[in-house]
Amino acid sequence: MAAKKTAVGVTTAGSEAAVPPARTGELAVRPGEDPWTPDEVDEARSELQSEVLRLRSELAHSREELTGLMRDSGDGAGDDQADTGTKNITREHELALAANAREMLEQTEHALERLDAGTYGLCEVCGKPIGKARMQAFPRATLCVEDKQKQERRG
Fold first, then answer.
1. How far apart are CA 50 and CA 107, in angstroms?
2. Number of C-alpha atoms within 13 angstroms, CB side, residue 13?
3. Distance between CA atoms of residues 85 and 41, nearest Å
4. In a domain, 96, yes or no
5. Structural domain boundaries enclosing 122
6. Total structural domains in the chain?
7. 26, 28, 74, 113: which could join 121 in a potential S-S bond, CB 3.0 to 4.6 Å?
């Protein structure tokens, strides 16, 4: 069977297992940037995988905290207004932390999917390279600086 070049530049041959594009060092970079090395790709993948584990652990802890807060909230009988208010604030704070951790987990898992697909480092709006330095500083980035600034001005 003849080898063929896929959309992301990975050469595959017939029935052989395709190498994940991110292992090839062919991730997008901006003009003038050095290409991604296999070690840099592995480091990005490892950092993202560690972040997934940390966030999943944080979410499990939040679930336990919220379960305890809900169990202890009862009907508030016997609590004064300050105690009830404190419990509500604590519960709302824990809910906000859990929502933030869930969002970060989704972003991190999305970054790993993009790494596997070979689209890591490409802006999801304009399709241009985000920039290797930006991806190394913020591995969950999905927008180039220009599109991120446009988004922030709108929102």
1. 13
2. 3
3. 48
4. yes
5. 27-154
6. 1
7. 28
- 5 is a domain residue: no
Q: Does 3 reside within a domain?
A: no
d(C-alpha 6, C-alpha 10), whole Å? 5
Helix (H), strand (E) at residue 146 = helix 145-154
pTM of the model: 0.74
Chain center to CA of 40: 17
Report which of 44, 27, 52, 16 is spatially closest to residue 121, judged by C-alpha positions: 27
Q: pLDDT for 80-138, tens place per residue?
A: 788 778 888 888 988 999 999 999 999 999 999 999 999 999 999 999 999 999 999 99
Cβ neighbourhood burial of 20 (10 Å; 0-12, 13-18, 19+): middle
